[in-house]
Amino acid sequence: VGSVASPKEASNVAQGTLNNSFPLQDVLEAQQFDRDLLTLIFDVAREMEDVKRGSPEAQQLSGFLMATLFYEPSTRTRLSFESAMKRLGGEVLTTENAREFSSAAKGETLEDTIRTVEGYSDIIVLRHFESGAAKKAADTANIPVINAGDGPGQHPTQALLDMYTIQRELGHLDNIRVGLVGDLANGRTVRSLAYLLAKYDGVKIYFVAPDVVKMKDDIKDHLTASGVDWEESADLMEVAAKCDVIYQTRIQRERFGDRIDLYNSARGKYIVNSEVMDVLPKHGVVLHPLPRLDEITLEVDSDPRAAYFRQAKNGLYIRMALLKLLLLGY
Amino acid sequence: VGSVASPKEASNVAQGTLNNSFPLQDVLEAQQFDRDLLTLIFDVAREMEDVKRGSPEAQQLSGFLMATLFYEPSTRTRLSFESAMKRLGGEVLTTENAREFSSAAKGETLEDTIRTVEGYSDIIVLRHFESGAAKKAADTANIPVINAGDGPGQHPTQALLDMYTIQRELGHLDNIRVGLVGDLANGRTVRSLAYLLAKYDGVKIYFVAPDVVKMKDDIKDHLTASGVDWEESADLMEVAAKCDVIYQTRIQRERFGDRIDLYNSARGKYIVNSEVMDVLPKHGVVLHPLPRLDEITLEVDSDPRAAYFRQAKNGLYIRMALLKLLLLGY
Amino acid sequence: VGSVASPKEASNVAQGTLNNSFPLQDVLEAQQFDRDLLTLIFDVAREMEDVKRGSPEAQQLSGFLMATLFYEPSTRTRLSFESAMKRLGGEVLTTENAREFSSAAKGETLEDTIRTVEGYSDIIVLRHFESGAAKKAADTANIPVINAGDGPGQHPTQALLDMYTIQRELGHLDNIRVGLVGDLANGRTVRSLAYLLAKYDGVKIYFVAPDVVKMKDDIKDHLTASGVDWEESADLMEVAAKCDVIYQTRIQRERFGDRIDLYNSARGKYIVNSEVMDVLPKHGVVLHPLPRLDEITLEVDSDPRAAYFRQAKNGLYIRMALLKLLLLGY
Question: Is residue A286 within 8 Å of A137, Cβ to Cβ?
Answer without folding.
Answer: no
